[in-house]
Amino acid sequence: MNRIPFTDRLLEYSKKEITSFHALPLNSGNGLYKSKLKEHYECLFGKEYLANEVTYGNGWIDNPIFPTDVLKESQEITAKTFHTDLTMYITSGTTVANQIAIFSTINHGDRVLVDRHTHQSIHFSLSLTGAKIQYSTFVSEEESSGRQFINYDSLIHEFQSAFSKGHPFKVVILNASTYEGVINNSMSIIEKILDISEDVTFIVDEAWIAYAAFNDETKKYSILSSINEKRSSYPKLRLICTQSPHKSLNALRQTSYLHVIGDSKLITSVSDIKYKIHTTSPSYPMLSSLELAREDMVINGNDRIQESLNLVKLFRSHMEKYSNLSINSKIPKGDFWALDPLRLSVNFKNTNLDVNDVKIIFQKHDLYISRFTQDSFLLNFHLGINENNIDRLKNALKELNNTHRSYITNSTSNEYVIPYPPGVPVLVPGEIITRKIIKKINMLENCKTKIMKIKG
Ligand SMILES: Cc1ncc(COP(=O)(O)O)c(C=O)c1O
């Protein structure tokens, strides 16, 4: 096990009875003296969390802006874990980590080649730089899952062509994994571009796959796992990689790792921009969770991720039982793409159910799913999903598989549908059955209202 110096120091100081004349009335709930809301705060955060909400700088815990002590050591251990030259803890999400990456590498008028299907944080940050942006847009889409597959041959061709014409791209921005679970082989793209020119900086957004580096089966998906080996072939490699540990590791929300690989010029530039953009009041519990998430993975990552992969394998064979549900697994031929083994897209087209019907069934089973298309939903088997959770999911899927919608959107009704009370038809023969009407009938049925259905 590595040291967790920041967390150890934070816990040491949170136990002391210190009176702070700096800021943060919420520390230990002290500012809530006589507050009617004290109980609410304690229910939300717990006494321990409130005790750990501190802001002790140099000589106590560490200076959060220019760390020299335990925060510096913690970031260095994390950098070593990910094989980077510098890793910084960001407490405003990968949204801001991406912004830092862009502002530290791109100036007004620079030419930048961008995978068009990157997160909004990249687009908005780029729009502020005044750079000359070329989007690589050629993409194929698997309609049911909504998965998009960037054509990397065309991206590499664009890089080659600009280089040959004498106006090369200074920065290339790649998205390593999409929300829908398409993992791009970023390292193979980077190598192909470096074979054309090494005079380029890469920004790679690994927001979704911070977990990948910690398991034998999945480490091939993270560029950082093979970075040492690649650096011996490409010693000038300059790369910034951002990750959202809160998406796949045990870290608090809004945390991000900003990893830098490269020369001292790049490191200085990223550090300077981080200083200018990042909050000057990072949350100490969030910083601590970035340290703990790394160490949790170092100790348990391989096994825990393997358990999740095994759960997915079992779940995949369970899915064969359902005649009306299937797993979307179409992917174009080629070496550039893979599907995240922990994220499955399930197709419910054959049930004939509307996406709203599906949402209602999941909600009834207390299952939260965030990504739907017209006929699919996305399941993320992240750490923490266990067999009991999957049993609950199976109950919902069984119901989904066996439920058939009696009304099809935009078809024509051949009956009266009359709820009682009040005895006023919600549908008459010849009327177009809109989604709104179906929703109303579903709602009435859910409320166990008596409904007469009489052929017209
Ligand atoms: C690919 C990608 N990059 C960056 C982000 C932003 O990350 P965060 O929510 O940590 O700010 C997201 C958010 O979903 C994302 O999908």
From TrEMBL:
Coiled-coil residues: 383-410
Domain Orn/Lys/Arg decarboxylase C-terminal: 408-449
Record Pfam families: OKR_DC_1, OKR_DC_1_C
Residues in Orn/Lys/Arg decarboxylases family 1 pyridoxal-P attachment site domain copies: 5-326
Cofactor(s), by name: pyridoxal 5'-phosphate
MF term (GO), any: carboxy-lyase activity
Gene3D superfamilies in UniProt: Molybdopterin biosynthesis moea protein, domain 2, Type I PLP-dependent aspartate aminotransferase-like (Major domain)
Keywords: Aminotransferase, Coiled coil, Decarboxylase, Lyase, Pyridoxal phosphate, Transferase
InterPro entries: Orn/Lys/Arg_deCO2ase_major_dom, Orn_Lys_Arg_decarboxylase-I, Prn/Lys/Arg_de-COase_C, PyrdxlP-dep_Trfase, PyrdxlP-dep_Trfase_major
Family affiliation: Belongs to the Orn/Lys/Arg decarboxylase class-I family.
Record protein name field: Aminotransferase class I/II-fold pyridoxal phosphate-dependent enzyme
Organism: Leuconostoc gelidum subsp. gelidum
